[in-house]
Amino acid sequence: MPAQLSTILYLSEYKEKTSSGYFIVNAVGYTRLEEEGDGVQKYNITAFYPIDDSKPCYLPQMMEGQVLSISNAKFNKGVNGELDVS
C-alpha cells in the first residue's frame, strides 16, 4: 500500500533512457538509519522528465553523487527492505 515519506539521501547510481516524449530516470539512493547504528536504507527512484523543454517540469534534474531532500514522496516497500520511490 502506498504511503508518503520525507528524507535526505545520497544518490549513488543514475541511469536514463528515452521513451515517448519523456526521459525515464532510474536511480538508487541511500540514507543512514540513526536508530540502527550503521544501518542504511536503500531507495529505488523512478522519475520522468519531459523531452520538450517548453513543457512544465516540477522536478529538478538529478545526477549521480548528489544529496537530495525528498518530501511527501509516494513509495512502496520493495524486496529486501528496499523502498521504491516514484
Would you write up a description of this structure?
By secondary structure, this protein is mainly β. It has one domain. The protein has no helices and 5 strands. It has a 5-stranded mixed β-barrel with strand order 1-2-3-5-4. Strand 1 and strand 2 form a beta hairpin. The chain starts with a strand and ends with a strand.
Short description:
The protein is an all-beta fold. Helix content is 0%, strand content 62%.
Please summarize the sheet with the most strands. 5 strands, mixed, barrel
Widest beta sheet: strand line-up: 1-2-3-5-4
Order of helices and strands: EEEEE
Shape: elongated
How many domains is the backbone divided into?
Answer: 1
Please indicate the percent range of residues in DSSP E strands (runs of 2 or more).
over 45%
Keywords:
single chain; five-stranded mixed barrel; elongated; mainly beta; 86 residues; 62% strand
What is the topological layout?
Layout: E1 3-19, E2 22-32, E3 40-50, E4 67-77, E5 83-85
